[in-house]
Target: Leucine rich immune protein (Coil-less)
Amino acid sequence: MQCICVSCIIEDLKSHDEVLLLKYTPEHIKNIYLENVLIHHIDQSVLQHFPSGFSCLYIQVSNSMKRISVPTYLERISIEKAGLRRIDIAANSSLKYLQIIECDLNKIPRTTRLATQLKIVEITGGRLRGLDLAHFCPNSRLRVLSLKRNRIRYVVNTSKEYCGLYDSLEGLMLTGNLLVEVKMELLNVFVAMDNVFFDNNRITSLAGRLINHSVEMITMNGNNLNYVDFCSWNVSSLDRITLEGNRLTMLPECINNLTSVQVLSLGSNLLPTSFTIDSVAGMDSLRLLSLSNNRLTSVMLNSVRFPKSLQYLDIRYNNLTSLDLSFIPVRSFRVDASFNQISCLDVLGTSANVSKLNMYNYPADCSWNSELEREYLKCNYTCN
Model:
């Protein structure tokens, strides 16, 4: 046993005879770290020997431990790289944070319903196959539900009545699962929802009508979406939506309905070879637009129909051979056009509203970061 400040580390706990020695743990200890636990079941017969005031239990690299019974007084439990298959949580539990990483759980513990003080549940790298949001209805203080890198194939809500969870849940993280379809209307009941993460699944379609006035960020990077329709969405607080690494062959339908969105990321898709800025002109709040790593050969920016708040355009890693920046109707506009095939750039004719231009990976770098750099720029790509 090694103790520092309010924490103790105990390794290779393997018998109940050794457990009796735990009574010598200093009384002021709050955090207990158990490494390589060789006991099959951690229960009150083990935990009762720790100081009465300890509230946080961390168990790491313990393949032999299959089960844990959580007493009422523990507030935080973190179990990582263990053989854990079962968790029993006592009624009237004080548990606020439950973290399980790379264990053998194949279902959400049924007794999490008894932990009504829970604020964060994180189960990462497990074997969960599905999620029924109704399971967490009794957890009316739960703020974050993170179930990343499991094997989840479906998300449903079988509750037939109001859940306290609807008022508390702020973040839903389902990154790295096996979802193919997402029913967006499932999010409509969550009035405090801020962030939704569906990255790196196998999603091919977004079904249903999303009506949510609290959600601020939705990320769906690394899926198989080839078509997205926003026409039935009503998301007045949505600030950021990222759809990078999908198979989109066109801009999402009704993209201009998203008037609150400030960041739109559509990089690494299969967008058409030609893009015109007026196609997103109705996005009044848009500040950053990413179209990097598509197959664009033409970007038309010279239009009076221009997103009025746009400040940054990312068009790196495309197939552009020219870039016309002669008419840009918004001030302090920044462009990153690096890693294209641009052979013609009219520096003298470029709008004064272009405050920064990146053109890295060209024989002659026509980049500038300030008005002074632009004034003294020597660039071989000036058009005839």
In short: The CA atoms of residues 293 and 317 lie 5 Å apart. The helical segments are 16-19, 44-47, 165-168, 371-375. The first strand starts at residue 2 and ends at 4. The mean pLDDT is 93.
